[in-house]
Design a protein that fits this description.
heterodimer; A: mainly alpha; two-stranded antiparallel ribbon; two-stranded antiparallel sheet; B: mainly alpha; 12 helices
Chain lengths: 442, 308
């Protein structure tokens, strides 16, 4: 019999796994639309404006599903982890509370943006509405990540007093905005959200370029160039913030860091351990690069924290070592891929006209989503068994109501229906709206 | 009344007003009555905002009554999560119905209607239980689903809200048989009062003592009946104001108790400095939100030539 706690975990994990894809699209897509509309006005180019119009329809349909999944996640936080939210409500609710206003900004200005296409087409004020949608989406991500940073590095109340008495006192509600993890975590989440969201559309544009009529080539090429530009910037920031994030983890969450790196012992001149399978508490079949881990931490003698410093019952599941390695591998792979395309573009080799590159971009679209999920999974599983690091265990925060079990099954069924139906509807939507007509091609 | 409590009631009242109108529309769509196109023109810009108000209420509730989360979250997990699942259907199928103009459009809207009605059923069930205490055990923080959804207080409240929702939709939209809908709505109000009188007498007494709000609600009800004859901007706005006043009136009448008289909610109010900041944010955010909503209403219902 699976414990109810695992159903709670699965329900939350599954809902978040779906939601982060939709949320990343919700963050990146407004940026793509704004750029397209801006270029359309500036260059008086109907192709860009059509791109913005058509993508805004995608945004609104995905926003509908995304906000529903976001609402579900918000409710799950409160229903599945009531003790956690009771503490958050007293100490760290402000970012989540402000996030509601960011959500309003996004919802209200998305409605205004869509409704005012006719009235304000060709005017910069319409782009401004889009910018507000984009700000709302990005602000939501920033504010929600602040709560996650609090979960990783809690502050803002008297933790020793809480641990000994269970009473929350000396609350500083503003401290949640500046936990040790906030800056780097927020930057990394934002960069990777733009990366994954933009890459999905980059892959779509590449796919359509491979199969479209020649008369529509310009439309998809322009779409590909905009999305790729965003991917390029986001990749750079994702890699930089990712590296800083790992190094800061060694200071602020050494236990999590040690699990990521499979460091069983604290040591200097530490090797970088890559891959491997954990069998009976021993890592096998890995390969290591001597001294590299310490070098990455700042110097050959830098001390890499090990799991031996922490009680074994608080170690995260060591599967995170493999998910972490896979994430880093994919991250650097993407960095290299994007760099190669950039170089080809700079030396005028026209990379987007090479079919093999387009195929690679399409395939990479799937890997971009995988990378997003791996990053999220590594970060969250790496905090286990804590829901608030060193303050509250997941098992202490959970709702043990057995009624969660059928809901888990129902939720999987609902998403299994909604996500493909949404894809079919979007396909039908564009099939019925002839691109040639919108582009003014006879 | 505590200011945090007042904010919470006001946010709930805005959400429930928008949602009650939507439930009325969902019923009309399900029954195939009413002028669907006109209703869709109303719902197209507003439905996301209704949903966002639901989240706003939940977050404000957590910030206002943090120590009550353990009881409420644990007890109502099943009906609220099921409601959230139907909320996903509501969002998705409304979006399909609005943006996809093919032959399946009507079917999508029917699914939306059904999902909205079921969400409403579940939300009203939880709400009535939170007010009356039927179907919940505070000691064990658990619910009895059959009792929750079959107790007389809930059933009467459900019928009353359905009748009032239908009256609201007939007042806002150009519909035939308006007198019949208004009659149904007035019956709905009367049975809601009887429900309160028999099962929650302290709230009924509280209602009569809140003279200002009671008078305002009666005046706006009269205004709604009078203005409904001739449709204009006022006749559309008045039903919303009336519903908002009614929700505030009912919520204030039950103050400060939850679950019958089992819990005094003020004992769960945020006692940390967080509560003060939540008040500031609600005021500043609320002002910005109001300004955005005014501009939104101007664009959505006056400036825009057509729904997108």
């Amino acid at each position: 019999m699976i414990p109810i706690l695992d159903f709670d975990r699965f329900l939350m994990g599954f809902s978040l796994a779906v939601h982060i894809i939709l949320a990343s699209i919700g963050i990146a897509l407004p940026a793509i639309i704004i750029i397209a509309e801006f270029l359309g006005i500036r260059k008086k180019d109907r192709v860009y404006t059509t791109l913005a119009k058509r993508l805004s329809l995608v945004l609104v349909v995905l926003f509908a599903v995304g906000t529903a999944s976001g609402t579900l996640v918000a409710l799950e936080l409160f229903l599945l982890w009531p003790k956690f939210m009771a503490l958050v409500g007293q100490v760290a609710i402000l970012p989540v509370y402000i996030e509601v206003f960011a959500f309003f900004l996004e919802a209200i200005f998305l409605a205004i943006y869509m409704l005012s296409w006719e009235s304000f087409e060709g005017k910069y004020i319409h782009v401004l509405f889009g910018v507000l949608v984009g700000i709302g989406g990005a602000a939501s991500a920033v504010l929600i990540t602040m709560l996650n940073s609090f979960m990783n590095t809690p502050n803002g109340f008297n933790i020793p007093a809480y641990l000994s008495t269970g009473i929350i006192k000396d609350v500083n509600p503003l401290a949640v905005f500046s936990t040790p993890a906030t800056g780097i975590e927020v930057s990394h989440v934002l960069a990777t959200s733009y990366f994954a969201g933009a890459f999905i559309f980059c892959a779509y544009m590449a796919y359509m370029l491979l199969k479209c009529d020649p008369q529509h080539k310009e439309y998809y090429m322009k779409g590909l160039k905009i999305t790729f530009s965003l991917v390029l910037i986001a990749t750079f920031f994702s890699v930089v913030t990712g590296i800083i994030s790992i190094n800061s983890l060694a200071q602020i969450q050494p236990e999590k860091y040690a699990a990521f790196e499979a460091n069983f012992l604290t040591r200097s001149n530490a090797s970088e351990i890559i891959g491997g399978i954990l069998i009976n508490g021993t890592l096998r079949d890995y390969f290591s690069i001597p001294g590299l881990q310490s070098v990455l931490l700042g110097s050959p003698n830098a001390i890499a924290p090990g799991l031996n410093e922490f009680p074994e019952n608080t170690w995260p599941p060591l599967i995170v070592h493999d998910t972490f390695d896979l994430m880093v591998l994919l991250g650097f792979g993407f960095g290299l891929f994007v760099f190669v395309i950039l170089v080809l573009q700079l030396i005028r080799k026209r990379p987007f006209e090479r079919r093999w590159i387009l195929y690679l971009i399409v395939i990479a679209g799937g890997f971009a989503v995988l990378l997003l999920e791996l990053g999220w999974m590594t970060a969250e599983v790496g905090r286990q068994p804590w829901i608030i690091y060193n303050v509250m265990l997941v098992s202490d925060a959970a709702n043990y109501s057995a009624s969660v079990i059928p809901i888990v099954i129902a939720l999987i069924a609902v998403y299994a229906l909604i996500l493909p139906v949404t894809a079919i509807i979007l396909k039908k939507l564009f099939r019925d709206r002839a691109l040639s007509e919108e582009l003014g091609i006879p | 009344m505590n200011i945090l409590y007042e904010f919470n009631i006001s946010i709930f009242a805005v959400f429930f007003t928008l949602f009650a109108v939507e439930v009325g529309i969902a019923f009309q769509i399900l029954l195939g009555r009413g002028k669907t196109a006109e209703m869709i023109r109303y719902i197209t810009p507003i439905w996301e905002i209704t949903g966002t108000f639901a989240v706003f209420f939940v977050m404000n509730f957590i910030a206002t009554f943090p120590s009550a989360i353990s009881i409420i979250g644990t007890a109502y997990v099943a009906p609220l999560l099921i409601a959230a699942l139907f909320f996903i259907f509501r969002n998705a199928f409304l979006a399909y119905g609005i943006y996809y103009k093919g032959s399946s459009n009507r079917s999508y809207l029917r699914v939306y209607g059904l999902a909205t009605v079921i969400t409403g059923f579940l939300v009203i069930g939880v709400l009535s239980s939170a007010i009356s205490g039927f179907g919940i055990s505070i000691e064990t923080a658990s619910i009895n689903m059959p009792i929750l959804f079959t107790n007389p207080f809930f059933l009467i409240m459900l019928v009353s809200i359905i009748l009032i929702s239908l009256m609201l939709s007939s007042a806002i939209f150009d519909m035939n048989k308006k007198p019949l809908y208004f009659l149904a709505g007035i019956v709905g109000i009367l049975i809601a009062l009887l429900d309160l009188y028999y099962y929650l007498n302290y709230a009924f007494v509280g209602l009569l003592h809140n003279i200002t709000l009671l008078l305002l609600a009666i005046i706006f009800l009269a205004a709604m009946i009078v203005t409904a004859v001739k449709r204009n901007a006022v006749s559309v706005v008045v039903p919303f104001v009336w519903m908002f006043l009614v929700i505030v009136l009912f919520s204030s009448a039950a103050y400060p108790y939850w679950f019958g008289k089992e819990i005094n909610a003020t004992s769960y109010l945020s006692s940390t400095a967080t509560g003060t900041y939540v008040s500031y944010i609600t005021i500043i955010g609320g002002l910005l939100l109001t300004l955005s909503l005014i501009y939104f209403v101007y664009i959505a219902y006056f400036k825009s030539k057509k729904a997108y």
